[in-house]
Amino acid sequence: MNPNSFASDPIVGYVVVALVGAAIGSFLGMLVYRLPIILKRQWERDCREALSLPEGQKAETFTIAWPASHCPQCHTPLTIRDNIPLVGYWLLRGRCRHCAASIPRRYFLIEALTTAGAIVSMAHFGFTPRGGLAFLLTAALIALSFIDIREQILPDVITLPFLWLGLLANRAGLYASLDSAVLGAAAAYLFLWVVFQVFRLATGKEGMGHGDFKLFALAGAWLGWQLLPLVLLFASLTGALYGGALILAKRQARTAPIPFGPFLCAATWCALFYGWPLMTFYLRAGHG
Ligand SMILES: [Zn+2]
């Protein structure tokens, strides 16, 4: 198909993009729930093997694709109608048809965000490889954010392939020069690693996880090194504001950890879409 045929009829193009976005959002909702469970089971098996412990209880098969979507409370499989992204949640009014257990709002939120992300990616970068890859990154960042919020992990199976994808995309200079991207990935990882070590020496505590280093390296691979200070500034500021607001609202003890991943994800996304316009504006304002 001619890649520009969508551009000649943008409405049709955006409808298709929204549908694809909603379908991928539905997949992400499931991934956010299932991937941590799959990983934890795998880690348990690995540990048992390494420690020569007997195998644990044989659990039922549980993969990304199996079993089919069901209510976590009463295990009734979802009907096709209930499974329609966005619409399904609305039709069910957020409750299981069978046992009326409430369905986490996160499913609807992930689907809505992914749909919006698909539309914004195409509107911003056009119906091009740049737009398509920007949407793929958007989807990965959404999944990482929600997994980190729920489980405080940033799985390597998402961060590492997307780090490589960023470098590959920038072979064609889609978002940054290859030189800047390689340097960005390495510098980003090293920087957070050093901050982590210094923080640990100074306080005896671990301020963040290794997944944060890899996520920041991913940001460097996509954005190039020039936008990394902006990402770090934005992520730290929003993270600190959020943490402060929680403490003020007395919802969180001062020492309870807040995952940094979602803030890094949001900052990376903003920098990919609006980083250079912001930088140009800032530099002009600074020297104007
Ligand atoms: Zn149910």
Observed structural traits:
288 residues; mainly alpha; 2 domains; globular; binds zinc ion
How would you characterize the overall build of this protein?
This protein is mainly α. The protein folds into two domains: 1-127, no CATH class; 154-288, no CATH class. Helices cover 68% and strands 0% of the residues. The protein has ten helices and no strands. The protein has helices at 5-8, 10-50, 87-92, 105-125, 129-151, 156-169, 178-203, 210-223, 228-248, 261-287. Helix 7 runs antiparallel to helix 8. The longest helix has 41 residues, at 10-50. 31% of the residues are buried. The chain binds zinc ion (ZN). Residues 71, 73-74, 76, 96, 98-99, 101 line the site of zinc ion.
Short description:
The protein is mainly α and 288 residues long. The protein contains ten helices and no strands. Helix content is 68%, strand content 0%.
Write down the overall mean pLDDT: 90
Share of helix, binned: 55-70%
Distance between the terminal alpha carbons, to the nearest Å? 47 Å
Whole-number total of structural domains: 2
β-sheet strand percentage = under 5%
Contiguous low-pLDDT stretches (5 residues minimum) are: none
The major beta sheet can be summarized as:
none
Secondary-structure-based class equals: mainly alpha
Order of helices and strands: HHHHHHHHHH
Number of strands: 0
The backbone outline, from C-alpha atoms, is globular
Radius of gyration: 21 Å
Q: What's the quaternary structure here?
A: single chain
SS element count, helices: 10
Ligand list: zinc ion
